[in-house]
């Protein structure tokens, strides 16, 4: 009886002991052609906070920040919103606290959006 049980257990485990795992090899080849000259443009959005000193709708906004007055060009896509994200329809007044998100170097700062913090 003992011998029969041992034989059955060995018979059950033998296929597992001699099981062979399969190995699959996948080769991926990617080819691409690049033009002779490429250029990559990276833009980053930064912001400045301060009080509005002058505002010309559709043209410019000047904000007095910790570094002094900073001038920005208002693009056609510039949005002026309040803290909740609702569009502000009234023109900005001198002294209003704003956060101006812009792109571009110091000479060509272009406004993406203005958040009125008052």
Radius of gyration: 34 Å
Q: How does the helix and strand content classify structurally?
A: mainly beta
Helix count from the secondary structure assignment: 1
- The CATH topology name of the domain at 46-116 reads OB fold (Dihydrolipoamide Acetyltransferase, E2P)
What is the CATH homologous superfamily assignment of the domain at 46-116? Answer: Copper binding periplasmic protein CusF
Catalogue the unreliable spans: none
Please write the CATH class name of the domain at 46-116: Mainly Beta
Strand percent estimate: 35-45%
* Secondary structure: number of strands: 5
How much helical structure, as a percent, in the residues?
Answer: 10-25%
Strand order of the largest sheet: 1-2-3-5-4
CATH architecture classification of the domain at 46-116: Beta Barrel
Helix/strand order: HEEEEE
- Overall pLDDT confidence: 80
Tell me, what's the shape? elongated
């Amino acid at each position: 009886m003992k011998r029969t049980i041992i034989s059955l257990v060995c018979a059950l485990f033998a296929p597992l002991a001699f099981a062979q795992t399969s190995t699959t090899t996948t080769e991926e080849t990617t080819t691409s052609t690049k033009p002779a000259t490429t250029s990559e443009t990276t833009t980053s959005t930064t912001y400045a906070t301060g009080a509005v000193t002058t505002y010309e709708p559709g043209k410019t906004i000047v904000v007095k920040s910790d570094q002094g007055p900073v001038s920005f060009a208002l693009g056609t896509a510039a949005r002026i919103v309040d803290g909740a994200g609702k569009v502000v329809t009234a023109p900005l007044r001198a002294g209003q606290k704003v956060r101006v998100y812009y792109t571009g170097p110091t000479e060509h700062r272009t406004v993406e959006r203005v958040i009125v913090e008052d």
